[in-house]
Amino acid sequence: MMYLYFNRTFNLQLNQNGTGPGARSSHAITIVGDKAYAFGGEFKPRVPVDNSLYVFDLNTLTWSIAEVTGDTPPPRVGVTMASIGETIYVFGGRDATHAELNELYSFDTCTNKWTLLSSGDTGPENRSYHSVATDERRVYVFGGCGVAGRLNDLWAYDVVDKTWAKYPLPGDNLKGRGGPGLGAVGGKIWVVYGFAGMEVDDVHFFDPDTQKWVQVETTGEKPTPRSVFSTVAVGKYIFVCGGEIDPSDLGHMGAGRFTHEVYVLDTETLVWKLVEDGSGGVDHPGPRGWCAFSGGKRDGKEGLLVYGGNSPSNDRLDDIYFFTPCLD
Fold it and tell me: Which co-factors does it depend on (predicted)?
């Protein structure tokens, strides 16, 4: 039997050297090997900061700016990044005119070259604040804020065939939403919580084999409704870290009420557990949302990297943490 425990000594705030992105939110980060790549985001609400690609060495804890070639994406917020092998995929977001975008770019970390893979009528419609997940071959895109409202569609980009596939739409019980958790676990694509006009607490999965959506009932120490949290899938578990539990009356221009909690969902038993993760210590990020986050490995251990985000005081943050759950 596999047991899960989470000791705060496995939580670590990482020092930072070199020229990094600085404080920001609504940005994205992904890990390739022993480096993390960060892109996009805002310091002032709704104003994209830049389109530099920042590289953080997880061994030396040093930032640098990649010297890139090719089809560099323009600045954007509410963007997502994911990686398969040595290639990074960047999708969507919102530009400086507040227009939703739908370009898919790849970045080859070996050659430092950007390539525009799809745009316009090819692939998912324009959106921001959506979610992505990956398996060995596909990049999954779900939901987000579209031109005409919040979305609940699921797409997959096949990195071998270089084609998009749209999956069947779910029923009305899976409302369009922004900032949900998304994870590829056990051959299924899981949608966890999000903001659908209000913070919601439902859990669904899509089974590519049957082409069916299923809403599941979870038990245990269930998190309250929330969105724009950091999330990672490790084995059969989906971790949910922080997030917004009460939106601001000012919308995106203000800070809602954030939480610091970490919960984990066992996708086999459908039982939630509140994780004892050392909250209140120096190696804990505290309450925040709208962070950049990525699953990956550091020192050979799988975990969750969390960078920056928005604080309860509406200040953008620039710190980095790495969580390592221990599975026995």
Answer: Fe(2+)
CB 175 within 8 A of CB 150: yes
Instruction: Return the bridge partners of 195, or none.
Output: 178, 199
In this structure, the number of other CB atoms found within 10 A of the CB of residue 285 comes to 25
Q: How confident is the model at residue 142 (pLDDT cuts 50, 70, 90)?
A: very high
Mean pLDDT of the chain: 93
d(CA 205, CA 236): 13
Residue 261's closest CA among 246, 280, 248?
280
Residue 300, C-beta contacts closer than 8 angstroms, at least 6 positions apart: none
Catalytic position from the list 24, 138, 150, 226: 150
* Cα–Cα distance list, 214 to 135, 173, 211 (Å): 20, 10, 10
Provide the β-strand partners of residue 77: 94
State yes or no: is 298 an active-site residue: no
pTM: 0.95
Structure tokens at 224: 């309250």
Nearest-5° Cα angle at 276, 272 to 277: 115
Per-residue pLDDT band for 2 (boundaries 50, 70, 90) equals very low
> What distance in Å separates the CA atoms of residue 113 and residue 297, rounded to the nearest whole number?
24
Non-local (6+) Cβ contacts of 233 within 8 A are 133, 183, 184, 185, 190, 239, 295
- Nearest Cα residue to 320 out of 309, 90, 80, 55: 309
pLDDT at 328: 53
Which residue is catalytic, options 24, 94, 177, 298?
94
Under 8 Å between Cβ of 27 and 73: no
38-69 residues labelled b (16+ CB within 10 A) or e (exposed): bbbbbbebeebbbebbbbbebeeeebbeeebe
**Confidence (pLDDT) at 327:** 61
